[in-house]
Amino acid sequence: MKITLNENADVVATVKAGLEKTGGYCPCRVEKTEDTKCMCKEFRDQIKDPDYEGYCHCMLYFKSLQD
Asked: What are φ and ψ of residue 21, in 5° steps?
């Protein structure tokens, strides 16, 4: 398993700017709770799934099944 940033630099820059504005909370979510603090609970749960491969909700991180 490997977690990387999105290869698209524009997406990374946009999401990081959003995180800065929200104090580290997912800019794609309305709620500001511990569950939406980046790296959000949704993606942490997806990481735990050995069969999941893909992006987090806001497309900042990608979980690859290969190292």
From this structure: -70, -30
Domain locations along the chain: 2-64
Q: What residue ranges in the chain does DSSP mark as E strands?
A: 2-5, 54-55, 61-64
Contact 59, 11 (CB under 8 A): yes
Q: Structure tokens of 38?
A: 């980046």
Report pLDDT digits (tens) over 19-46.
999 999 999 999 999 999 999 999 999 9
Give the model's pLDDT for residue 64: 97
C-alpha torsion angle, residues 17, 48, 31, 8 (rounded to 10): 20
